User: Fold these one by one.
Assistant:
Number 1:
Amino acid sequence: MTIEQRTALRDHKPGALEAFFEAFFDPLYQYILRMVGRSHLAEDLTQDVFMQIHKSFDRYDPQRNLKPWVYTIATNRVRDFWRSRRNQQSGKEEELGDTLGRERLPDDRPGPAHVLDSKEMGGAVDAAIEALPETLRTTFVLRFHEGLSFVEIAKIVGRNEVAVRKRYSRALEELRTSLAHLDPMGQGFRVEGAE
């Protein structure tokens, strides 16, 4: 976005707000969904994030890049969620059988075996990402899925670039270890874009 567009956002211009929403809703929802793993929670948290962003626009400096600012707000909201009692309560709900969005039932429709294998591997990868500690998962998702630079991620999570690079490397190593059982040839998993 240009400085003029970002200034229009800060000034709450209707067209600018609509363009912002269109540009950021889907990526933010997907980011939050990857972080919490449940669609109903991701929907609620995404709505909370957009409300917070809307309230914060008057403090936004249009000279700054918008994407890291937005993802900082989203990351902080997800952190708050994990720390809240709501997380503890939703964990209890899940123990009672509420696994919406987490179940990975095999596809019983006829089709090639590689399609089923692909779905199972996708489920295993999703589960491995969800199992990462929050700090590693945040760094991994912001880098791998959202395409943010290490400098941008460092600003979002409040660490220096070296620490963020180390977290990303640790996340990749934990994912390789977690997914090793899916690599019968022992060739190791490669993540495109990994340093």
Number 2:
Amino acid sequence: MTGLWHDEDGQMVVELAVIAPVVIVVCIVVMNLMQFMGQVALFDRVAPDAVMSQAVSPSGEDAQAGGQRELVRQTILDAMDAGPRVDVSVTTLSSLEAGSTDDDALLGFSFAPNLTRYVCVLSFTPWPSSLSIAGVDAAIPFRLTHRRTFTVDCYSPGVFF
């Protein structure tokens, strides 16, 4: 009768030891993706309002110096109340500079020299960004990014092109 009995006392522990790290990694990836998607949804609501309120009709020296870029960036960050893993960058390109690179095909030649394109980029660093296990260092070499582009006329408040 003892020949029919198989000793399987440790099988469940071994299966758990093999599957648990995979489940933990999948949960971390899903958590990071959900946080990124939440930040993207918030960014998509906040960025147009920030560009419309801060970039249109800049006054004084801001119009020449491009100081409205930092104002737009700071408005987006303040509205998002983002953590340390989220960064926002804002770049501008006027319609007079439109023929300088191949990426500017959307603006093209314009008879309205007051058009400015604002490119707002959300960058998200997944967690954990670096990890050290048993003396082996591992780091995530990428950031997730999301980009929104808005073209505005500096002298027409509330108008996107």
Number 3:
Amino acid sequence: MKDSPALVLNADYRPLSYFPLSVWSWQEAVKAVFMDRVAIVSEYDRFVHSPSMKMKLPSVIALKQYIPPKRRPAFTRFNVFLRDRFSCQYCAQVFPTQELTFDHIIPRCRGGRATWDNVVTACTTCNLRKGSRLPHEVGMMPLHWPARPSSELLQEHGRCYPPNYLHQSWRDFLYWDSELDPV
């Protein structure tokens, strides 16, 4: 049963988030169904039982009340990596998160701050090479100048990184590698 999470869609039938993908445990999904907070869109072939009833586990649920997306995403390490698509902004290589760091365009020792428009994703090698110098001093200009991303941009970037688990019933709502029917 623990392998039966439910994809959570907003009331407009779009995922609440793509990265991390908005999923609830089967227990949370069943509770939300009984509290009449969600509509069941798709179900697994698995059942849960109580003394008085039997129900299929929901695989896709949609909230009944729309939750507007946050207008301004939080400044977090993960969101910076997601904005920069997990690639070093100096050498352009993609790395796993554990091999990525923040790089301050204007180093903190020179008055730079940890803000959206002063921090880029860097691999440890490039970060050490740049050190506490300015990009033009070391000839390392970032591929993309940093800026505050919109929530929509982060969602779009998140769609490029499907999770390890994708149930077949989720594909119509996620658009990852789904084959479209010819018109």
